Structure formats: C-alpha cells, structure tokens
Amino acid sequence: MLVLVLGDLHIPYRSNGMPAKFKKLLVPGKIQHILCTGNLCTKESFDYLKTLASDVHVVKGDFDENLSYPEQKVVTVGQFKIGLCHGHQVVPWGDIESLAMVQRQLDVDILISGHTHKFEAFEHENKFYINPGTATGAYNALDSGVTPSFVLMDIQATTVVTYVYQLIGDDVKVERIEYKK
Amino acid sequence: MSSEDSVKQPQTQLSPQEEQEKLLDEALQVVKVQSFQMKRCLDKTKLMDGLKHASNMLSELRTSMLTPKSYYELYMAISDELRHLEIYLCDEFQKGRKVADLYELVQYAGNIIPRLYLLITVGVVYIKSNESCRKDILKDLVEMCRGVQHPLRGLFLRNYLLQMTRNSLPDCPPNEDPEPVKEGEVEIRSGDIKDSIDFILLNFAEMNKLWVRMQHQGHTRDREKREKERQELRILVGTNLVRLSQLEEVNIQRYQKLVLPGILEQVVSCKDAIAQEYLMECIIQVFPDEFHLQTLNPFLRSCAELHASVNVKNIIIALVDRLALFAHRDDGPGIPNDIQLFDIFSQQVATVTQARQDMPTEDIVSLQVSLINLALKCYPEKIQYVDKVLETTVEIFNKLNLEQFLENSSAVSKELSRLLKIPIDSYNNVLTVLELKHFAPLFEYFDYDSRKNMSIYVVNNCLEHGTEIPMAEQTDQILQLVSSLVQDQADQPQEEPDPEDFSEEQNLMGRFMSLLNSDNPDQQYMILNSARKHFGNGGNKRIKFTLPPLVFSAFRLAFRYKEMSEEDDKWEKKCQKIFQFCHQTISALIKAEYSELPLRLFLQGALACGEVGFENYETVAYEFMSQAFSLYEDEISDSKAQLAAITLIIATFERMSCFGEENHEPLRTQCALAASKLLKKPDQCRGVSICSHLFWSGKTREGEGTEMNGEASPERGEPKELQDGKRVMECLKKGLRIANQCMDKSVQVQLFIEILNRYIFFYEKGNEAVNVQVLNQLIEKIREDLPELDSSEEMDQINKHFQNTIEHLRLRQTSPESEGPSYQGLEI
C-alpha cells in the first residue's frame, strides 16, 4: 500500500509550484493515501492532491487558508497507526523529545510532522518519525539550505519502507529506509 | 361497378434519381451495342462502318437530360471505347494508310458532337504518326471546339481534347535561328513551348467561359443546385492549369511573362466568384513555390480585383502558409535574399484591404494573423516585422473609430486574441513580447473579459516556461499589461466576481511574484518596489493574495544581502530598508482589516530579522514582535484562534536568539501573561505550560562585548539558553493549579498527563528543579484519578497516553541514556 507524505508547499506565498520533475513522478492512480503535513496553502493545491488519490488527509499549518483542517489527526493504514501534525505547535520546533510527547499522546507507531522544511526519518524508542520536508523547496527563515523533498511509504504488514525523493541540483535522488513495528 | 372489377393501377412516378439512373442505363446500353459493332467492323477493316458506329455511340453525348455526374459516367465509358479506335488508326498508319484522308472524311460526320470527338481522335493519331503538322492540327482542334457552346457538353469535349493531347504538346524551346525553307520543301511546323502555352490558355479561357455560363442558365430558384453542379465540374477547368505546370519548358521566365498573365487575365475578367475563388487557389496548389515567390506582386494585385464575394482572405492565407512552409523546410533553398517576402505581402495585403471596402474587420485581422505567421516562420529573428504587423492592426482599429470595446464573443475579438497569442506562443518568452511596442496598445481595444483572459494567458505562459523578469522596468511593463488582474478597472462589471474564479486568478498573480527575480540585489529591490506600487492598488480583496508573496520575496532578498556582505558595505542599511518595506506592506494588510495573516507575517519577519543580523536588527525584531502582540490583543477574539495564535507566538519567540535580556524579558512576560488570560481553563493550562520552554531553551545575548582597546562595542556576545529551571517549574506548577480548577475530570487528568510529560522533558534536559519526587507525586495523583473516570473512548485515549508515558520512563530506567539523569527511586 502506497502512502504519499508531503507538505509545506507554501503555494503561492513562498513558491509557485512543485518542481516539474516531482510532478512527473506523481501519477494518479498509483497512490492509495495522502498524508499532508499542512501549509498547502490554498484550495488549488488541495484539489491537485485529490487528483492523485481520493483519500487525502491534511492537518493545519500556520499559513493554511482553510481554517477547518484539524490540528492533529490519527490515521490507520494497514497495521500502522499514523499520527499527523504540522509541527509549528510543537515547542521547540523539531525537538525529538517534544515530538515524542506528541507520539505518546496520540499513541501512534509513526509520527509525521513538518514545518522545519528539513527531511527526517528516524527511529526513536521503537517508534518511527518522518518529516517529509517541503515538496516545493519553500523558504524557511531558520534554514538557508532547503531542498525540495517528499516521501512515499510502502506499507506491507508490519514493515514500512520509506522512500525519500529529494531534488538535489537538477536530479531527483532517492533513499530508502526500513522500519519494522 | 362490382368490387371485383380490377382498377387500372397508374404508372408509378420515378424519383429524379431513378430517372437519371434509367436514362444513364439506356445510354450505356447504346454505347455497349454500338461499341461492339464498331470493334467488329474494325476487326474486319471496315473503317467507314466502324466510324459510323462510333458516331452513333458518340451521339449519346448530345443529350441534355443527364446531370453532370451521369454525363461524366457516360463520357468515361465512351472515352474508353474510343481508345480502340485510336489504337486501330495508329496501327493503320504504321501499315501506310494515309491518315490525311481520314481527317477530311471525318469532317462530314453528321452532328457536331460526334464529328468533333472523331476529329480530335483522328487529329491526335495524325500528330503521333507525323509531328511535322502538329502545330497546325492543335490550333485547328482548339478552335473547332468553339462549335459547341453548350456548357456541359462543351466542357467535356474540351476535356477530351486536353486528355487526348496530353503527350502530344510540344515541349521544346523556340528555335531562335530557323533555317530558311528551301524551295519545294514543306515547312516543318511542329511547334514549340509557346504554341503549347497558347493552346492550353485558349482551351482554358473557353472552358472557363462555358463554366461561368452555367451560373446563369435556368431559373433563379435552382441557383443552389446549379452552383453545386458547377463545383462538381471544377476539376475539368483546373486540369488546364495542371497541364501547364507539367510542361518542362514552362520555366520561371515563361511563367512570369506568358502563363500567369494569361491565367490571371481570364480569372479577373470573368467576374465570377466561384471561378475566381477556385482558380486562384488552384494556381497556388499547382505551380511550384519558386514560381510564386517571383510573381507575388501580380498575383496579389489580382486578388484586389476579385469579385466582392470571393473570400480573398483564404486565398492569401493559403499562399502565405505555403510559402512559410517552404521557407521552413530544412532541405529547401529557402527564400531568396532578394525577395523581401514580408514587405511584399505587407504592402499587397494593405492594398487588398483598401480595395475591398466591405471586407469584415475580422477578415482583415485574419490576414494580419497570416502575416504574423509569415514573419515568425520566415524571419524569426526580425522582431520588428512582428511589431509592424501589430502596428498595422492598431492602425486598422484606429480607422474604425470604435466607440466601445470589442465584445468578448465577437468574431473580431476572437481574431485579435488569436493574433496576440501567436507571439506569446512563438517566443515563449514574455520579455521578447514586451519588446513589441504595439502589443500592449492592442490590449486596449478588448473589453474587460477579453483583457482579463489575455492577461491570464500571458501570466500562464510565464509560469509554464519559468520566464523570470529581471528588471524593474519590465516588471512595471508587465504589471501594466495585465492590469486587469492587478487592479480594479473602469469597465469592470458591477457584480462581484465568482469567488472561485477570483481566487484562482489572484493565486496566479501570487505565484507570478516568484518570477520577479534579478541576480542583482539592488535591481531586485527596485523590482519589489515596482511590484508593491502595482499590487498595493489592488484593493482589499486582492492584497491578501499578492502582498504576502511580496513580503517573503523581501525576506529572501535580505538574506541575499547578508550573503553578499563582503562585497557591499551598505548591506546593513539596505536590509534596514527592506524590513521597513516589509513593515509597511504588512501594515497595509492590517488597514484592510486582516489580522491573522499580518500577525503571522510579523512573526516571520521577526524570525528573518533575527537571522539576518544587520545593524539595529534587535530593535526591528522587537518592533515586529510588538506588532504581532498588538494584533493578538486587539484583533483576535475567537478563543480557538487565540490559543493557536499565542502558541505560535511563543513557539516563534522560543527560536529567536537576537534579543538581549532587556528586550527578552518583557516579551517573555507578555507571553506568559497572554497565556494566563486565555478564557478557557484548559487553554490557559496549556498556554502557560508551553511558556515553560521560553525559560529553558529561550536564548538571550548576554552583556556588551568589548573591543580590543577596551571600549564597549555594540556587538553582543553569543546567544545562550536561559535554562532557568526554577522559572520553568513555576510555569508548570501554575499549569497544574489551573488544571485542578477544571471541572471536567477527564480533561483534568489529560492535562496532568501532559504536564507530567513536560516534567520528564525538562528532567531529561537536566533541569535540576525537577526531581524524582516531583514525578512520583504527579504519577500517583494520576493513578488515583484515572479509575474514577467514566469509561469511554476518550478515557481509553487518556489511559494509553499515560501507559506510553510510563513505558518511556521504564525504558529510561532500565537502559539509561549515557548523559541522562538517573531514574533511581522512580515509582512506576
């Protein structure tokens, strides 16, 4: 089962669109679920995600137009409970232990968060943490070296293989990380 | 009368189609019979009898009852049979029979139709066997056909002449120095290319006259039917032109001097729209492009003289398109340098339009479209040609003295849109389009909807091709061009636009902002100022979409200046200006009564300011934070929005490391105060708990730095975390007190567990004010309260939260982190 994880697009405030090379890879019909960390920021981007898959979950970022997105969400995919939250509410931003607090509260196997515009995928106390970064390479005041990235999770039984796609220079580079429940 | 008497049935009427079929069948029967007889006689070398049967067969072509389609079928059947006669006669000559006799004999055949068909057949045989009298025979034949003036019969007769003489036309250059005829010798008059040209031109002229005459035959109510029939026959006339093009000796010079003038004269003088339209296009199709290139002027001049109802536009466009294709071919010679193709067409098209006063405007614009295509295909580097076409179009519109804008749905508007889209799509570079001086003026003729659509088209083109706008002047030009998307227009409709459409358009403009980009930071600043001027006038609804991208663009520029600080000693003052610019821009949003958006922009500005670190940046960052707080206090009234906003303020502030203690302290205090004033207790508890982080990982720059010579420098030292453990605990204890005031037990327990987690967080970070007793106390309290909760889904969640927390502690207890605190004594 393929799950697309992405966010922090910041269209149109900080970016005019996803890199063409990313768009080419995202073909409708191949992905079952989309988990978006937020900061789309407009309906246009949401509609685009809906063309890729019908099951789209979005949580509220600090610049999202749509005020009715939830602050947090828990989604079950296969045998995994997955938590989703943008991360601007987690103080300090990107702190592992602060994120762990959220993981414990939501009681999830995998916690997905964004906001830092920096890709992360690591295990911590037997739980898995993913930050898909920014799919458009949008500006972040605290990080001058932002790379466009998104994540594809392949969930099979109790294993999730995480593929991270990064646009480095003009090329798309892929890395693979495995996590077992 | 008894009912059994049979009543005579009337003859059933045949439909016209059935009539035709019947007549054709009958005629074909005759052909079958007579041709059979003819062949039998020829087999027995009974020539005269054979000719008699041939004549009978040919008499069927005298009919007036058949439609052109049926007549054609009959004609084809008879032509086939005449082939036998031709072969027989050729054979006879081989054997020595004097064909000259025959020529005389056949003249005495009864009716003119059979007579002329036989003459043509015999004449061609004679030419094939003896070339020396070719010229005379050909002249004879083409003249004799005048005897048949009935249009349908005449056309087919002359077609027969053309087909039969196909391989017999002289195709050699004239002999410039003929030998004088010796006495007693017959002059050899086998003819040359000039004779062939004369022959065909005469045949063509006569056929065209017959064809045109058909237009005026019969009743006016049958006009449509007649015109349809004429169209069916047009290829007969056109074949003359094809034959001309097949002659090898028709070179460019002869085409120019003899062929084209002859054709054009007939075409223009016949004054018949159907003939003119067909024949002009025929000329274009049939003769090679090299010929057309050398005869543009006479051809186009003739276009001006054609009948008013001829669609001259299509003729010219067909020619232009063909030549454009010719120019574009890689393996072709291309346009010769001495032919100023564009100038010629430009002038002649103008002549044509002037000559035809009632040419609809959209057709005139269509011609400009074909000219622009010509310019782009044949002379892609000559932007001035494209501009010339646009200039002509402006003149056209000026002459029209329009009182109002062109309506969106009108044909003219559509053609004009088509015209303007061509350079956009050809260059795929809006900067080149901006070089066309007459591009923008043409926008002015559109009505509001068309202007907007064209503007959207332009912006989309930029976005699709990532065309960056690197100069302030170009930014100005472009935003002026697409002003219908940027600002309210005088001719804007009164009703509110559809919100989805509006938001789509404005998002487009927001995205467009990212294309305004120069490598030179100073130029970039000017670009931002230009954009600010245009977008600033967009009105309250638009600026929500367009000013935020502008602000972020400005932030990015500040970072660029910082990167280039080595090369630019004014960078700090410039950054100051940039943040002033941002302050102003964000304030414009406040004036338009937005609050959440400017609050977030001020927070982003404070962050950026802190990171860029120019002279005086602390003051600016403080100002931005104050503005954020003002907005929070004055404008955010919804309690959910308040919690979200204060959380964001706290989280943002926690990351900032630019403040000294005297600025950090009031901001910290404000945060804590605001959190404690939230309306709902749970919100208060959470807000206050989050503040605890400010006292731990919040950073200040301590003290004044000192220069080497001992003087105080304005530089502060490196930022250091506060790590005020006591104040952290005060926050969390206050949180606990507030939690205790919550009436809902399950909310209370939830809050306790959250605070417990924060205790653990700080304990593990090394806060000495947190110890194992504190943890034990809270754990015990939670353990007491949990069982009292009503079982529900919510309670399960809370339980799990607690279990996970305990699990974490257990993990840390049994396999402690090397640098972590000891969990000895923890009771879990």
Shape of chain B: elongated
Oligomerization status of the protein chains: heterodimer
Mean pLDDT of chain A: 95
- Rounded to the nearest angstrom, the radius of gyration of chain B is 48 Å
Domain count of chain A, please report it. 1
**Total count of helical runs of at least 4 residues of chain B:** 36
Structural class of chain B comes to: mainly alpha
Unreliable stretches of chain A, pLDDT < 50, 5 or more residues? none
How big is the Rg of chain A?
15 Å
Portion in helices of chain A: 10-25%
Largest sheet properties of chain A? 6 strands, mixed
Order of helices and strands of chain A: EHEHEEEHEEEEEE
Strand order of the largest sheet of chain A: 3-2-1-9-10-11
What is the name of the CATH topology of chain A? Purple Acid Phosphatase, chain A, domain 2
Distance between the termini of chain B: 125 Å
Number of strands of chain A: 11
Helix and strand layout, with pairings?
The complex is a heterodimer of chains A (about 180) and B (about 850).
Chain A: E1 2-6, H1 20-25, E2 33-36, H2 43-52, E3 55-58, E4 72-77, E5 80-85, H3 96-106, E6 110-113, E7 119-124, E8 127-132, E9 149-156, E10 159-168, E11 171-180
Parallel strand pairs in A: 1-2, 2-3, 5-6, 6-8
Antiparallel strand pairs in A: 1-9, 4-5, 7-8, 9-10, 10-11
Chain B: H1 16-43, H2 47-59, H3 68-94, H4 99-106, H5 112-129, H6 134-144, H7 151-164, H8 193-215, H9 223-246, H10 252-270, H11 273-286, H12 289-294, H13 296-304, H14 312-328, H15 341-355, H16 361-378, H17 383-400, H18 411-427, H19 430-434, H20 439-443, H21 448-465, H22 472-481, H23 483-486, H24 499-512, H25 521-536, H26 540-563, H27 571-591, H28 596-612, H29 617-635, H30 639-655, H31 661-676, H32 681-696, E1 699-701, E2 704-706, E3 712-716, E4 719-721, H33 725-740, H34 745-765, H35 772-785, H36 793-814
Antiparallel strand pairs in B: 1-4, 2-3
Helix pairs in contact in B: 1-2, 1-3, 2-5, 3-5, 4-5, 5-6, 5-7, 6-8, 7-8, 7-9, 8-9, 8-10, 9-11, 10-11, 11-14, 13-15, 14-16, 15-16, 16-17, 16-18, 18-21, 21-24, 22-25, 24-26, 25-26, 25-27, 26-27, 26-28, 27-28, 28-29, 28-30, 29-30, 29-31, 30-31, 30-32, 31-32, 32-33, 32-34, 33-34, 34-35, ...
Keywords (chain B): Cytoplasm, Endosome, Membrane, Phosphoprotein, Protein transport, Transport
InterPro entries (chain B): ARM-type_fold (IPR016024), Vps35 (IPR005378), Vps35_C (IPR042491)
Pfam family, one (chain B): Vps35
